[in-house]
Design a protein that fits this description.
By secondary structure, this protein is mainly alpha-helical. It contains one helix and no strands. The N and C termini lie far apart (74 Å).
Length: 51
């Protein structure tokens, strides 16, 4: 019983760790993308007002 549990954790644990890492890095990328997009929108609004 205990061996089966350890085997299950070791085989499932690695994919969980990789998934959490990828989700975290994806979230950081999306945060940067959102910030850049917000800056672009502000610049476009400023250019419209200048014309």
């Amino acid at each position: 019983m205990e061996q089966n549990l350890l085997t299950a954790i070791s085989s499932v644990g690695f994919p969980i760790v990789v998934t959490l890492y990828l989700l975290t890095s994806f979230q950081r990328s999306m945060d940067r993308f959102t910030d850049e997009l917000g800056q672009l929108v502000k610049e476009l609004h400023e250019q419209r007002r200048a014309c």
